[in-house]
Amino acid sequence: MKILAPDFDLEKTLNCGQVFHWEKSGAGFVGAIGAKGVYVEQQRDQLVFMGATAKVIANYFSLDHPLAGICCSFPRDPGMTAARDFCRGLRIIRQPRWECLATFITSSMKQVAHIRQISLALRKRYGESKQILGHKIFTYPSAEQIVELTEQGLRECALGYRAKNLLVTARLVASGEAKLEAWRELPDDALREHLCELPGVGAKVANCVMLFAYERLRAFPIDVWIERVLRQQYFPRKRKVTAQQLRNFCDRYFGEHGGYAQQYLFHHARKGGAVSK
DNA sequence: CTCCAGGGATGAT
DNA sequence: ATCATCCATGGA
C-alpha cells in the first residue's frame, strides 16, 4: 500500500533521536507501531508500507502537521535557519505514551546508540514477536508486562541504575495510579507536574514525553547537546548563564512550535556538526 | 586507555 | 534556590 507524504523525510524522522527502535531494511525500515510490525519505505513524495493501515501510518508520522507553517514560525537567526534547512522533512511523530515514557526513563546519561541497544534488548527479551517481510520485530513490553519482572531481570538489559525507575514507574502505570491516557486532557504545566512525579522523570524527560507522546509541540527538552547549542549560538562569551535562564529564554524565544525547533537544533548539532564540545 | 552520554535524586551550602 | 556527587554502562 502507499500514501502521499509530501514535505516528509522518513530517514531523518526515524534517525533524529526521537524514536530508537527502527532498523534499516533494504530501501526502507522495519519496526513496530504499537502492537503492529511494520515495513515503511519512502519513494519521493510517497510512503510505501506494510503491516498497518494508511490511517495508522499517517497518524504515527504526523503527516497532518502543517510543516511549512511550523517552520515559518521559527525565529530567523542564522543557527535556526541552518538547522531548518538541514532538517527539511523531519516530523515529530506520535509515539505510544507508555513506550515513549519508558524509553526516555532508560535514556538518562546514555548516548543515542546505547538507548537503541537498551530498547532493542527489552523488546527482544520481554516484548512480543511479530513477523514482517521475513524480519522478526518485537513490540515494546507494556507496563503490565514490566511489573511481572524483577529489577535484576531489567538490569540484564543493561539498564543499570535506571532499572529501578522503570520498574517503579511501570507499577504506578499498571496500577492505574498514573493515568497516562487521561493526562492527555491536561494543560501543559499540569501534565509536566504529573510526569515529574514519576521516578526517573525530571524536567528533561518530561518535556521529551510531552513532545513525542502528547503532541505538546511547545515542549522544549534541554539536554547536553541543546545546552551547548544555546550557549554557543545565543549566549556567546557570556558566563554564568543559569539553567533557569536558559529555560526562560527558550520558552520566550522559540514560540508555539518550540519543540520542533528544539528537535531541528538537536539533529543539526549531532549530525551536521553545528556545535563543538 | 580515558572521556562522556537526549539526567535524576539526594544532601550540603 | 543553586551546587556537588553519585548512579551503571559501553560507544567513541
Give the arrangement of secondary structure elements.
Elements: E1 2-4, H1 10-15, E2 23-25, E3 28-33, E4 36-43, E5 46-50, H2 54-60, H3 67-72, H4 78-86, H5 97-105, H6 112-126, E6 129-132, E7 135-138, H7 143-146, H8 151-155, H9 162-174, H10 188-196, H11 203-213, H12 224-233, H13 243-253, H14 258-271
Antiparallel strand pairs: 1-5, 2-3, 3-4, 4-5, 6-7
Helix pairs in contact: 4-14, 5-11, 10-11
The structure holds a DNA duplex (13 and 12 nucleotides).
Strand content: 5-15%
The rounded distance between the terminal residues' Cα atoms is 44 Å
The major beta sheet can be summarized as:
5 strands, antiparallel
Structural class: alpha+beta
SSE pattern, N- to C-terminal? EHEEEEHHHHHEEHHHHHHHH
| Average residue pLDDT | 97
Total number of beta strands: 7
Runs in which pLDDT lies below 50 for 5 or more consecutive residues are none
Helical amount among residues, as a percent range?
40-55%
Attribute tags:
277 residues, 14 helices, single chain, alpha+beta, globular, DNA-binding, two-stranded antiparallel ribbon
